[in-house]
């Protein structure tokens, strides 16, 4: 009886199974995916029923931002953040990231979304119902802490030599798919002209685009920026102009300043400033950052979203400004 009582006391005093793996799975080390060490010695690895060891009312006591939604939806949420625990179960993402529970994380709006819809060459990428597997292409193991880190919250894709090297910026993530000769296994981009940005972007970004590695001088006729946050020579991220999760503009161009231009202060971005690019007229996009120092042509005219400062406010901007054009100043 004494031995049984002692064993019971020691069991109650011992850390629970869910605490035994905190060195390997922890928000503080940006790692939430369970490993074969789950349980401390691997004793919990391979189990698909989290409730066998965990008590729903006790977990995530130190994570108030997700505690309520986990309690509400139950153990079905576990695999979304923590992986399949070696049980081979599908990982649910949309169980929380949907229009009812977390509608702004990410914000999905508009008819165009980067949801990997199949399409014919040169057709628009139209919206299709997002599913869990779509999320995992780009976000395999996010730490869900609300702070975006390229090398934590984005899937580490193969670079041009087949290695999984860290991203120096967000654009490097994009060009690991949008290139001519080292696209990702299972996600080929085919049927496009050699110069199409969908496959030429890796070269454009490195060698031609003023907004990529090629540095603008700020000395040309139309020079001038709205704010010192973006300066000539600044590498502009793809997501400053392209909205991955939803926009009403083709080519995934942001339809509002609140969806991009992330270096600007929130008060400016969240006005928000509207962007309409119908007819390949990108004046409303460009004028968010560009404001000529010496006004010429249409520089003092409202582009239609309340801002002025670009030399032309109507017509097809892409005739002179396009990704990868060495002539003029590119985009």
List its traits.
331 residues, mainly alpha, 9 helices
Mind explaining what this structure looks like?
The protein is mainly α. Among the domains are: 14-82, no CATH class; 215-331, no CATH class. It is built from nine helices and no strands. The longest helix is centred in the N-terminal third of the chain and has 12 residues, at 2-13. Mean pLDDT is 85; it is low at 2-15 and 118-125.
Order of helices and strands: HHHHHHHHH
- Distance from N terminus to C terminus (CA atoms, Å) equals 79 Å
Q: Please tally the β strands and state the result.
A: 0
Secondary-structure-based class equals mainly alpha
Assembly classification = single chain
User: Which percent range fits the helix content?
Assistant: 10-25%
Largest sheet features: none
Q: Over all CA atoms, what is the radius of gyration?
A: 24 Å
**Tally of alpha and pi helices:** 9
Which stretches are low in confidence, meaning pLDDT under 50 for 5 or more residues running? 2-15, 118-125
Identify the overall geometry. Answer: elongated
Compute the average pLDDT. 85
Proportion of beta-strand residues: under 5%
In short:
The chain is an all-alpha fold and 331 residues long. It is 19% helix and 0% strand.
What's the helix and strand layout?
Layout: H1 2-13, H2 64-73, H3 78-82, H4 132-138, H5 150-153, H6 170-175, H7 197-208, H8 266-269, H9 283-286
């Amino acid at each position: 009886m004494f031995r049984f009582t002692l064993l019971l006391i020691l069991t109650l005093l011992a850390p629970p199974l869910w605490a035994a793996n905190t060195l390997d799975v922890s928000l503080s080390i940006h790692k939430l995916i369970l490993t074969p060490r789950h349980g401390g010695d691997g004793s919990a690895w391979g189990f698909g029923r989290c409730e066998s060891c965990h008590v729903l009312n006790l977990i995530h006591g130190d994570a108030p931002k997700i505690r309520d939604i986990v309690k509400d939806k139950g153990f079905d949420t576990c695999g979304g953040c923590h992986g399949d625990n070696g049980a081979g179960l599908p990982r649910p993402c949309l169980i929380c990231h949907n229009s009812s529970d977390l509608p702004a994380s990410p914000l999905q709006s508009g008819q165009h979304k980067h949801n990997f819809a199949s399409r014919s060459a040169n057709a628009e990428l139209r919206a299709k119902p997002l599913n869990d597997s779509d999320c995992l292409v780009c976000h395999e193991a996010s730490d869900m802490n609300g702070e975006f880190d390229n090398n934590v919250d984005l899937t580490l894709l193969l670079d041009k030599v087949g290695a999984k090297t860290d991203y120096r910026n967000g654009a490097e993530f994009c060009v690991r798919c949008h290139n001519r000769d080292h696209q990702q296994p299972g996600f080929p981009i085919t049927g496009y002209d050699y110069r199409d940005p969908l496959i030429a972007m890796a070269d454009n970004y490195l060698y031609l685009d003023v907004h990529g590695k090629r540095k603008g001088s700020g000395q040309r006729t139309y020079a001038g920026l709205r704010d010192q946050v973006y300066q000539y020579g600044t590498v502009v991220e793809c997501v400053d102009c392209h909205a991955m999760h939803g926009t009403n503009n083709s080519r995934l161009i942001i339809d509002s300043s609140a969806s991009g231009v992330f270096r600007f202060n929130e008060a400016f971005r969240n006005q928000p400033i509207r962007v309409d690019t119908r007819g390949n007229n990108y004046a409303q996009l460009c004028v968010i950052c560009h404001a000529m120092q010496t006004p010429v042509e249409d520089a003092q005219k409202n582009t239609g979203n309340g801002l002025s400062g670009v030399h032309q406010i109507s017509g097809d901007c892409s005739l002179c400004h396009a990704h990868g054009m060495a002539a003029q100043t590119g985009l």
